[in-house]
Amino acid sequence: xxxxxxxxxxxxxxxxxxxxxxxxxxxxxxxxxxxxxxxxxxxxxxxxxxxxxxxxxxxxxxxxxxxxxxxxxxxxxxxxxxxxxxxxxxxxxxxxxxxxxxxxxxxxxxxxxxxxxxxxxxxxxxxxxxxxxxxxxxxxxxxxxxxxxxxxxxxxxxxxxxxxxxxxxxxxxxxxxxxxxxxxxxxxxxxxxxxxxxxxxxxxxxxxxxxxxxxxxxxxxxxxxxxxxxxxxxxxxxxxxxxxxxxxxxxxxxxxxxxxxxxxxxxxxxxxxxxxxxxxxxxxxxxxxxxxxxxxxxxxxxxxxxxxxxxxxxxxxxxxxxxxxxxxxxxxxxxxxxxxxxxxxxxxxxxxxxxxxxxxxxxxxxxxxxxxxxxxxxxxxxxxxxxxxxxxxxxxxxxxxxxxxxxxxxxxxxxxxxxxxxxxxxxxxxxxxxxxxxxxxxxxxxxxxxxxxxxxxxxxxxxxxxxxxxxx
Length: 472
Ligand code: URP
Ligand code: ZN
Ligand code: ZN
Hints:
With 472 residues, the chain is α/β, with parallel strands linked by helices. It folds into 2 domains: 122 residues, Urease, subunit C, domain 1; 324 residues, Metal-dependent hydrolases (TIM Barrel, Alpha-Beta Barrel). The chain has 13 helices and 23 strands. Strands 1, 2, 3, 6, 7, 18, 21, 22 and 23 form a 9-stranded mixed β-sheet that branches. It has an 8-stranded parallel β-sheet with strand order 8-11-12-13-14-15-16-17. Strand 1 and strand 2 form a beta hairpin.
């Protein structure tokens, strides 16, 4: 099957220009001057399908490097399965996800990875890879880390938060980082001081402050800043590169920026919720409504300027990537577990479908350039997590993961008709975006176009990832 995408503006992390894209089978065969012929043949007349991208942007498919499909967490499980979550991803122009396989204390790392393969295999609409959560660092887990790269898992996540669940103490973190440095694994860190948060949270509940808002109060920015600093210094001692996930506090950004200025190999990711939503407006919504936005790290105060600062950090490259941390829970039967005690609200927000649109809105409002949009959502994720060349770029030989994006289109985000995630609400209800995902192609197959959804469970393949391009 040959497809020609004609008339569009191809956008990469480094520039833009009018070009036609020829797709042959699963890969991009050529990026051509508009209207090019091949050996005198009119290309458009000799392909199986022509996609008219006139007036539109042609970009590499989005890569969401932080999702949690079906994650057992907070006494329940994230409500999107690999099937529903990757379908929603496809609708939104994301053609690859990297999810987190889980190992907990007393479990074997490779059993955790096998369990996540079992959940995902044959069910995904888009390509998928795994990071490995190491929730119980011990001698066995450290030994098992040696096998991860061979399995195509070149990054793993540790938690300074959630004592008794995924938490690692400093000694465990240092040992894991030393091992990772030896192996070329990238350490991803959930940087919040979990034990201190638990003390504050217990005191708040004791004082009768049980509403979702107090989730944000207990998870004070000082405890994100402190943990970020500690993670940076432990990584420095271990000579391990570090990637801090879901950064939300401007003080944590300052820690990352200072470390980078001092030559340390550290990187940061933020998420759309930390760019748009706030402690006051969403977590502070009346009654139990704020539970929709309970996630960790928490939404931060707009009065303190965290959101504005986060956009600036994206511009200055103090933060390098935007992922969603997609971890959806329904209000009914899930979030409502925490009525009367915010500590029991399952942590997570669903956004996998909306990341490309929400970040494009940053282009519309002049916060980031078109090229930076592509870099933050596709190219850097590919480079950071060992997928570049195959993913993250429109170039001959790359997988034909292509999105045609209409800057003149419009997207109203909200419930039912306008989202496809398995949730009974939307954290983004009422958001209006000046842009629209028109066509989504994954390895040459059109998953979404004006006629609707054409994807299927099982189209998505496991991505064996190479080493990060950002290892020093
Ligand atoms: O609230 C969140 N972030 N839920 C998912 C688990 C995590 O810490 O990433
Ligand atoms: Zn986390
Ligand atoms: Zn997460």
